[in-house]
Amino acid sequence: WVAYENPEFTGEQYILAKGLYPSIEAWGGKNCKISSVQPIIMDIAGSKRGKVKVQLFSEPEFKGNCQIIEKNTRCIDSFALKSSKILDGSCIMYDQEEFSGNQYVLEEGIYPDLTAMGCSPQAVLKSLRIINIELSEPCIALFEKVGFQGKKIEFSTEILNLQFLGYNPRIASVQVLGGIWIIYEHSNYRGRQMLLSPDEIPDWYKVSGYCQIGSLRPLLQKRVYFRLRNKETGKFMSADGNLDNLNLLRIQVAEDTDSDDQIWVYQDGFIRCRMAEDCCLTIVGNLITPGSKLGLSFERNEDKQYWHISPDGRIYSKMKPKLVLDIKGGTQYDRDHVVVNTVNEEKLTQCWEPLVV
Question: What region holds the Beta/gamma crystallin 'Greek key' domain (predicted)?
Fold first, then answer.
């Protein structure tokens, strides 16, 4: 369960697993106030069902009629919304039906009027799309010519004013290599905006309708816990072994055990196991080849500890970009061990489905 300090799922949050909590210290509370609760459910990252909860109001300052939205909505026709609350996650509002027209990205927070949402006071918002979780590190490349030609500039952090930094704001093509990005027409996050997930855009003007980028920033996403289900076997990636001796611990697939050794978190390029968050997923040994096994080790900023999770479910080694996570297979005792193997588009054992907890 998630317990919230304030009503309407706001304020300090406390994650409560099954068990007894005899005092506020036991659940990490600052005081004894809990005003709303909701269960944690299993969801598939990227599925139609989002984890976002949006409240729309017909009047400014959260007054008038209220509509609660938790999924993509092609047409908002109940009333003309004037204020909103994004209680969890992020969404995009559009000023036309069917997810078209100008975009307005709303992150978790409260928006007492249309101006706070980045719209003009006369704007009419007609549709809403949930922003799903993206399990990759932010990286974007901008090109001065169409088709990814000409001068290339690459960013992994927010840029408030592209021209002020000495770059030409006239951009012709874009590659989103990781993360979710908000692109703004003008500097200081002003003007028309567009949300981009990992993709290639060979002609920026054709997609956006404007030929310059003034500022950009990666969308901040909450740290999320997830399980990795193999698409071929249906089994879950697990850490098997004793934490007292990491050298003997191995990563393998197993049936669902509903335990922390099958729950992972992705942050800053590291994949960590919930049962030992000071450790991260690593390739075992110094000679890394197809078939090398995986384990856990303390974070040392080593190249073999960094991973990239692609939209198709493959998990790439940043040290060896042609190697992905796979199941060893065969008939030996280690057939369920997770290894790195050369990318093979036909092998479903190399595809993993993140199930957000």
Answer: 1-41, 89-132, 138-178, 179-220
